[in-house]
Design a protein that fits this description.
Elements lengths: L13 H21 L9 E3 L2 E3 L8 H15 L2 H14 L1 H4 L7 H4 L1 H12 L7 H20 L1 E3 L5 E3 L7 E3 L2 H13 L4 E2 L5 E2 L1 H15 L19 E4 L6 E5 L11 H18 L4 H4 L5 H21 L38 H20 L3 H18 L42 H18 L10
Antiparallel strand pairs: 1-2, 3-4, 5-8, 6-7, 8-9
Helix pairs in contact: 1-2, 1-15, 2-3, 2-6, 2-15, 6-7, 7-8, 8-9, 8-10, 9-12, 10-12, 10-13, 13-14, 13-15
Length: 458
């Protein structure tokens, strides 16, 4: 169980955050200079060097978004130039990529961050440049929303790259693309000029995820433990019925892949922040504010409590809470995680994503008057962040292109590099982990410096 440090303050993490930005910039420019673009997008490291893994193109926005975050945090104009030029020259295909559920990853991390910086006055305002960013975000949200499957239970979901039968936990984090597009006044136009509300699609997908991807201890099946999540929910396309849980990257459908949980824990609090910018009248046709906020909070709090209870004391989880060799680690939940053990790998990226989710959820609940509960989650986020912003998770090796060490991509497929002499993967990084470590650091840094709150929703 996470040993939540209740006396920890954001300012206590300042030295670790400064060190993170110090080691971050050379890694960004090393990838820019040395990566072979003919391979495709960089995904994860092998022996400290970024390489690709052809599955889907979902990580490129994290690469250039990282450069934009570096500028935001440090004022590094070369990082800004690289992020801007790469977004302009390389990211366009991602705007109309019909084959992925990852628009919130690729496009909000790039076009969204640039728009945010311009709105905050951190880069010079230019009308046409702003129109460019906003048009890109409008398109991205609509394209994401078009990957739609309706279900018999009512509503529907944005289906994963696996196909129309497949709902991924990951996609809750990509709803930020629909939220920004909707806020910009955009809709999805379909056959016969049907005008589809992106807010409607966002709420429906969030509701379906809460119903079928999150467990609440209410007897759904024999493995129904409150806060447990399933990576994938499978539906019968012939009749629209839910058929079964599944997992692509976790150990099994009936255990919890911790990065899948992390996308849910980070996604719902951010969408709750978005709902605060939407009027009651606008939400009424889709269930009303009370009902929508209720199911989002129920899901967020369930997974938040589960993660605390099923994670080692320092806040770094193993890659799956039901990984088959965890029993060999002894009382592993009552001691810090062991990234160099001989049995099961940790996944620092799940921790980085969850930490931001805890901070957003804690802040949201405190604003809503649930101070005790909000403080618990806020302090959990700070506790995890303190662990991540130091060795052995922060990569201090200038020859290693990764920033956040001990990332796991796809354990069942055996994609992750196992160092010589080791029995498990460790000491490698990933684009999503590096980006979310930077986003987490920027979030806390802005709190410390009393800057504008880090959000894409005005």
């Amino acid at each position: 169980m996470i040993d939540i440090q209740n006396d920890l303050k954001p300012a206590d993490l300042k030295a670790g955050i400064e060190k993170l930005w110090e080691v971050s910039a050379p890694k960004i420019f090393s990838i820019a200079k040395n990566y072979d673009r003919s391979q495709g997008s960089p995904v994860y490291t092998v022996k400290g060097r970024y390489t690709t893994r052809g599955w889907t193109e979902w990580t490129q926005g994290f690469e250039y978004g990282s450069a934009i975050l570096q500028y935001d945090a440090t004022g590094d104009k070369e990082a800004l130039r690289y992020g801007q030029e790469s977004t302009l020259n390389i990211m366009a295909p991602h705007l109309t990529h019909m084959g992925v559920h990852d628009h919130g990853f690729n496009n909000v991390s790039t076009y969204g961050n640039l728009r945010r910086l311009m709105r905050e006055g951190k880069i010079p305002h230019d009308d046409w440049e702003m129109h460019f960013y906003e048009l890109a975000l409008k398109l991205s949200g609509a394209v994401q929303a078009r990957r739609w499957t309706g279900i018999k239970a009512g509503g529907g979901y944005i289906y994963s790259f696996n196909g129309p039968h497949s709902l991924f936990a990951d996609t809750i984090r990509s709803l930020r693309a629909l939220a920004v597009s909707h806020q910009l006044g955009h809709n999805l136009m379909e056959e016969g000029d049907a005008n589809i509300s992106l807010l409607d699609r966002l709420v429906q997908h969030a509701r379906t995820t809460a119903r079928f991807s999150v467990y609440y201890g209410e007897g759904r099946d024999a493995y129904d433990l409150r806060g447990r999540t399933t990576h994938e929910a499978i539906f019968n396309l012939n009749d629209g019925n839910f058929r079964c849980p599944n997992s692509q990257q976790g150990f099994s459908p009936f255990t919890t892949w911790t990065r899948g949980l992390s996308w849910i824990l980070c996604g719902y609090p951010e969408e709750l922040e978005f709902l605060d910018t939407v009027s009651d009248d606008e939400l009424e046709p889709y269930g009303g504010r009370e009902e929508i906020e209720s199911f989002m909070l129920k899901a967020a709090e369930a997974v938040a409590d589960f993660f605390i209870e099923h994670t080692p004391t320092d806040g770094i989880p193993y890659w799956d809470t039901g990984a088959p060799q965890l029993h060999n680690l002894g009382d592993y939940l009552n001691k810090p995680a062991e990234p160099y053990n001989d049995h099961e790998p940790v996944d620092s990226t799940a921790a980085a994503i969850c930490a931001q989710g805890y901070l957003r959820l804690g802040r949201y609940l405190e604003k809503k008057g649930a101070g005790d509960k909000g403080k618990k989650y806020w302090q959990a986020g700070l506790t995890i962040a303190r662990t991540l912003f130091a060795e052995p998770y922060l990569s201090m090796d200038e020859n290693h292109q990764g920033l956040l060490l001990h990332s796991i991509y796809h354990r069942p497929n055996g994609w992750d590099h196992i160092p010589e002499g080791s029995k498990i993967p460790h000491s490698e990084s990933s684009m999503w982990g590096d980006y979310h470590a930077r986003e987490l650091a920027l979030y806390i840094q802005r709190v410390i410096d009393n800057e504008t709150y880090y959000t894409f929703f005005g």
